[in-house]
Prior knowledge:
Blueprint: H1 9-19, E1 31-34, E2 37-40, E3 45-50, E4 53-54, E5 62-63
Antiparallel strand pairs: 1-2, 2-3, 3-4, 3-5
The structure holds zinc ion.
Amino acid sequence: xxxxxxxxxxxxxxxxxxxxTLACPVCFGALRLETAKLVCVECGRAYPVENGxxxxxxxxxxxxxxxxx
Length: 69
Ligand SMILES: [Zn+2]
């Protein structure tokens, strides 16, 4: 997994504001913003955030099923 360093801080702040209004497209759970991804608090899927834009596509989500990084 490559750390993305080129997302802008401003984008992330804006994202933080509306992350709470977004829902997981799979289970409709709430999404929590992490460093460069949106993580579903219900099913644990992690959606990538590319250049400050969240990619809420189920096929693109990473399933973090307990594996630590
Ligand atoms: Zn979910």
